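Q: How do we represent a protein-ligand complex in a form that can be generated token by token?
A: Start from the inputs.
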Amino acid sequence: MKIVVTGSLGNISKPLATELIQKGHQVTVISSSNDRKAAIEALGATAAIGTMEDADFLTHAFTRADIVYVMETLKSDAFFDHSLDVVEGITQIGYNYKQAIERSGVKKVVHLSSIGADKGPGLLRFHYNVENILRELPEDVSIKFMRPVGFYYVMYQFIPMIKQQGAIFSNNSLERKTPWVSPLDIAAVIAEDIEKPFEGRTIRYIASDEVSGRDIAKILGEAIGKPDLQWMEISDEQMLNGLLTAGMNPQTAEGYVEMNIPVRDGSLYDDFYSHMPVLGKVKLTDFAKDFAIAYNQNQ
Ligand SMILES: NC(=O)c1ccc[n+]([C@@H]2O[C@H](COP(=O)([O-])OP(=O)(O)OC[C@H]3O[C@@H](n4cnc5c(N)ncnc54)[C@H](OP(=O)(O)O)[C@@H]3O)[C@@H](O)[C@H]2O)c1
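Then emit the structure tokens for the protein with NAP bound:
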């Protein structure tokens, strides 16, 4: 099949494109950077260079595809750009995808959404918005909404905290177990699901492991040679002040803290636990090895 993969050679899209090519599909990978062209072609894919902000480019890239995998993202420092409304920016990308899907005539869509897209608390509002924008597409467009939980790689943000303050500080719970996921498991689930029939609108949650704040501190601490590493619960106000001090856009920082409230009390996962997936292969102990390498490289 002809499959278009957005998200360039990112955390999910690279292993996804690689697996789809191995399975014999004709894959086009979208990147915003001309510098990525050679690496995309080296995988055996066609490169389409353009941005998610450009609906005409997306329409052209999607034309004649059997299936498109769509994900939304903004530039890497978006959370720290004080002139950017992140929710608005991502929501606009949702409208661009909708327009491109309609105009190109593609009928099968895999959408990278998120845990919490059913309620959209805080920053997760953009996933709620984009799912609902895509649901406005004509009924003959089938959509598989993929809802991964929080990514392990978010934990890299603990590295400077551990180095400077000797602990992990979070407004998330010390004791409550929450699900986490590896992009490799997300790519594997999507690569498998893409070859199954598309029927209407479906939702699939994706997770790799379930751990508490205490487990995270223990597993990451042991991996970096600090077995006594602690997870310190802080208030929402302290969390907000920390993010603002780090330079985060105030609106984004508020959305981040607000998003963590239902993570902490568990209510974000109500629908997840009603449709609990089989957990993937990559456990936190596996991610901890990558975490230790990054920790040791960070001076
Ligand atoms: N963090 C979480 O816990 C979490 C949880 C649930 C869902 N999610 C979703 O997962 C997504 C991240 O997925 P990922 O880790 O696979 O992505 P990623 O690796 O962060 O980024 C994908 C690539 O997209 C390309 N890109 C960036 N801006 C672009 C633009 N304007 N137009 C076209 N391409 C652009 C960039 O490559 P080039 O430089 O080559 O263009 C980038 O490396 C998030 O955006 C969010 O929607 C995250």
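The two ends are 46 Å apart (CA to CA). The chain is about 45% helix and 15% strand.
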